[in-house]
Amino acid sequence: MSDIQASKQTLLDRRYLRMARIWAENSYCQRRQVGALVVKNKMIISDGYNGTPSGFENVCEDADGITYPYVLHAEANAITKLARSGNNSDGSTLYVTAAPCIECSKLIIQSGIKRVVYAEQYRLTDGTDLLEKAGVKVEYLNLENNESKEK
Ligand SMILES: [Zn+2]
User: Fold this and answer.
1) Ligand 1: distance of its center to the CA of 14 in Å?
2) Does some domain include residue 9?
3) I need a surface site. Which of 82, 94, 103, 149 has the fewest CB within 10 A?
């Protein structure tokens, strides 16, 4: 990739990641709002935010503020939405506002997503470690400044 191509890619990455952040505003979860977009050939083929499964009340936390175990993460929602669509995630890029957990990382690997760009580090790195082990390109982009670096 030339420098010009690389900087164009970074610009696009930042835009998609900002869109994922805006998409996260759809989440009705109180503790944390996460958004995800799946992009293939410059088309957004799926989207997701963390929330309860279809048909469940739009409440993510119990009275003590503990997240219900049946809440789906943004990545899982985006990937399962693809399963019901005519789109194919093979070779796509996932933009997600927070580093994927290990459960979502398994889904990411199996869905053929080849690249993950995320905005917020997570205290655990087992998810991103697993992705890298499976050959998925993982990139951290800090939206608060203009620097970007490989994870
Ligand atoms: Zn997850």
Assistant:
1) 21
2) no
3) 149
Tally of structural domains, the chain: 1
Q: According to the annotation, is 60 in a ligand binding site?
A: no
Q: Catalytic: which of 75, 132, 144, 147?
A: 75
Structural domain range at position 80: 14-140
| Single pTM value for the model | 0.92
- CA-to-CA dists, residue 41 to 37, 44, 45, 106, 123, angstroms: 13, 8, 9, 23, 32
CB half-sphere exposure, 139, CA atoms < 13 A:
18
Is there a domain that residue 1 lies in?
no
Domain at 65, CATH number: 3.40.140.10
Give tens-digit pLDDT for 26-59.
999 999 999 999 999 999 999 999 999 999 999 9
